[in-house]
Design a protein that fits this description.
There is one protein chain. The relative contact order is 0.07. Among the domains are: 142 residues, Rossmann fold, CATH 3.40.50; 89 residues; 204 residues, 3-Layer(aba) Sandwich (Rossmann fold); 152 residues, no CATH class; 55 residues, no CATH class. 48% of the residues lie in helices and 12% in strands. It has 41 helices and 28 strands. It is an alpha/beta fold.
Length: 1153
Amino acid sequence: MGIKFIYGRAGSGKSYYCIEEIKNKIEQGKENKLILLVPEQITFQTETRLLKHIGEKSVLKSEVLSFKRMAHRVFNFCGGITHKRMNEAGRNMLIFKVLEEVSDKLSVFYRASKQQGFIDIVSKTITEFKKYNITSEILKVTMQAMREDDEELKMKLNDLSIIFDKFNEVLHKNYIDSEDELNMLSDKLDNCNIFDGADIWVDEFTTFTPQQLRVLGKLMQKANNVYFALTLDETHGLDETDIFNVIKNTEKKLIRIAGENRVPYDGYLDLNSRENFRFKESRELNHLEKHFFTYPFIPYKWSNGDIRIYKANNNYDEIEVVAKDILRLVRDQGYRYKDISVVCRNLEDYEKITSVILNQYDIPYFLDKKRDIVSNPLIVLITSIFEISSRNWSYESVFKYLKTGLTGLNGDYIDILENYVLANGIRGRKWFEDWWEYPVDRYHADKDEMSSEEKQRLSLINDIKDEVKQPLIDFYSNIKGKCTVRDICIALYDFMASLGIIERMESLSRVFEEKGVGDKAKEYEQVIEIIMEVLDQAVDVMGEEIIDPNDFIKILNVGFEKYEIGLIPVALDQVNIGEISRIRSRELKALYIVGTNDGVFPASNKDEGILSDQDRELLRDQGVELASDTKTKAFEEQFLIYSTLTMCSNYLMITYPLADFEGKSLRPSIIIPRLKKIFPNVKEESDIFRENNDTLEKVVAPVPTFNELIGALRRDFDKKEVEAYWSEVYSWYKRKPQWKEKADNIFKGLKYTNQEQDIARDKIRKIYSSNDKLLFNVSRIEKYAQCPFAYYVQYGLKAKDRKVYEFTPPDLGSFMHNVLDEFTNHIRDKKIQWNDLDKEKCKNIISEIVDKQVGESSASILNSSKRYKYFTDRFKNILTKSVTVISEHMRRSKFDIFRNEFEFGSYKDSEPIKLKLASGDEVYLTGRIDRVDTVELEGETYIRIIDYKSGSKEFDLNQLYYGLQIQLLVYLDALIKNSKYFLDKQVVPGAILYFRIDDPIIKSKRDLSDDEIKEQILKKLKMDGLMLKDIKLVKAMDKTMETYSLIIPAAFKKDGDFTKQSAVVTEEQFNMLRKYVNEKMIELCEEMLSGRIKIEPSKDGKFTYCNFCNYSSICQFDISLKDNTHKLIRKHSDEELWKEISSTVEEHQGGER
């Protein structure tokens, strides 16, 4: 009986020595048990290694155990488990319950106890206490022994002891905690002879917790000999800063435990004097092991290529280089995939991108990571069932539930229902209506206007609705009123059974298995078991407690969040991918360390947890040992660097990116410059600044090589130099049936132009005509000028956005126009004079009109939620301010409102504008004018057009020239041509103006009077447009005007003439603009009907009409493609524009078309 240490630095052959000793014992015919004790995560690897070195005898004569395996072995052999084992998920549910009960007794942690994340913190603290054999009694005694000035720590310990006490009280009624297993093992070993006379080798451990040390003490008493393999040598580890100090401290603890158990210490065997076992084929790696943490070090003057450093542009470049290099090792140097590992400090940063790239390169790999289950469809379904109720049957919760694919509902039916629910804003009580009568298209006025096809579709939607809601309603009725946890668990199980969800999960698992997606198959299989286990533990922990369903799902989620699925490798020959802290040394030839950046590796440990470093130091002074503080963790991180750098035997490649996925710059780790100093001839590699990167190294695997081939053929297509071997590569793909079509598509892609072919005139005419008549409104012509393709998609293909129950900007525009129309009608009908209107009267009238509009179906959405009701009040304020300003305009003006919402081309008293095209086609234009004002002056009737805009809008002659702002001129032309029908007289153009509907904010550095505020508002809402250059007319629009106007864009110079900034034109210019616009519309209509649907959005300065286009995902406009160009709206001076407009009109003089 005794203990002995096996010293050896990394690679010295400690593990090999242990296995050889086991082999020798077996060959000598020893009958005692031979145990190899290793960390849990490498038991499978160690068993494989033992079997390989010893053969089948190893299975019969020796055993690989971890502490966890050992506990289960003893409990099974010697008995003693009378309670069920609670796992981490169950513990978290229990902590949730405990915190609910004791939160009022807490002081420091009272507020924190109400936060969801606190559960995990408490769980980690309890785990730490148990691993270090800290009981609540120890906490209380320590608390009493502390000085008065340590009051904060005392309060912490008091809170923790309250939580710990309650936790253990509830736990031990039905369960044992998995963290108590080692203490139970240690107790059981006293009366269990399973390890009597055994030889035990303990390998691959760096430190031991007090629980583990207690178990080891019992094993020392029982065993014949216990051998500890320690990464250590005789001369290191005594200094606190030495990397081996962590191991030296472990050795001291083991010697102390041996002494306490009266077990003799038989000294040590130092393997360091022998030739390094691992690095015998690599002098570089041998030198690295000896000198990386040696001060001063000896530089290595040679470079054999065993150590490489690569600087990558980003993570993608980094992993792609690693993938290519792995294939090089396998293809050219005879490596097996199992000889290779890729490690990083944080696997989450590299998991997805590594999987994608290694799949592309056909590299088999195993991701050594436990997977969480919260995103599994069954977990999502369970949580969404409760969300539907708590979130009042919201769209998000209902369709999260339906889209799990586990409800049995047809996917097409789910889409139909989703579109209908979105279009009609269905949530809450609407789901409980017996029959939905909302129109299939919400823009229909009522259900009577629906077609028979729409009524049939509505019937189908109601059937789908019933199929969705009935199982849920049944479930909610089963958990109504005062329910216990047991009641809810039973109801949940019955719900899943009634829908066949478990069977569906099992079926999906089989499908994944058949498709070769083994990981997914195992996940689906294990999740079913996990659900049942979580429900069982919930019932055991608090089964008879009455609970609100919302609290129940919180508890369940706490359990789900802690479950992780562990998978074992499904193949023998594959690259191992994992986190540095999880990977242990094995027969590894090549290692890639990726993400070697500052702050990442070595990691900066800043999270101290509930107990700070200072707290831990104070507790240590009281004899209470806990886990490492951040300072100690920093030393442990240094040892981790040493262990990682020395893990492989032949080849080490260290990489780091210069930027993360978001483009933020990253710095290299301190490891990089240290390596460069020790190995001055190892040059840092990078492709970042390499000019000629077209090398044969790019020909690696079918998928990535194909991607490179595309680039090579593009260079060849652009007449650039390309290596000759790409021709052979292309021929290879052409010969492979599975690649031939893709290879052919490369040339199609190179010749691809992102443009649409023109459509034949007869076809386009049929598309755009109605009853064989080409009837357009003016805004359509402007739309075509903005982009021919967008026009075709909207009016030709009639593409529409998915209907969503929301109040859109077009809805707002229509709503405000209707309110303003109603307002002026009210004024006229009630014979109210503009002079009699004040702000209060305007407010009352607007409020009445808005409430009426909201009550109608077209604007009923404004009553659907508090958010929209707030918007309604906001709209009232805006409209009140607008009509107050309009009232002021009318008081200052001689003009009267002739008509609102004046439609031309639709009634008997007005004709559409007719455009005669050169092709012989006739286009008829219709439109609706927001407001038409008139005034009689000196026997002439002048008309003024007012266009209401809810956003900022200014008249732009440049935009008019390009056909992008012709609406008001067309309206003016229509009124002049139709005046004989509605006024029985000729009219003269007076003005075309934009009025902005708004409630502007007035800013000032001083307090303003009411009159000053009014003046500022009028300035902010001053109309913009064009007016007739006639002083008497302009003054008729603003009778109060002296030198400048607050309401129209006009001002006078001292001589009485108009200023240069005044927006005035002569009657001749007005008529010229009318004629120009007429010709511009003919030009655009000719182009439109010729079938031209070019993807060519207009661009005015920095603004492009793509900015607000709904069809960009259809056209895929890309300025980098040579065939995708903007139609540039060039800036011209007014003088140039008038000259061009005049020239165009003169050119077409000879009769209107």
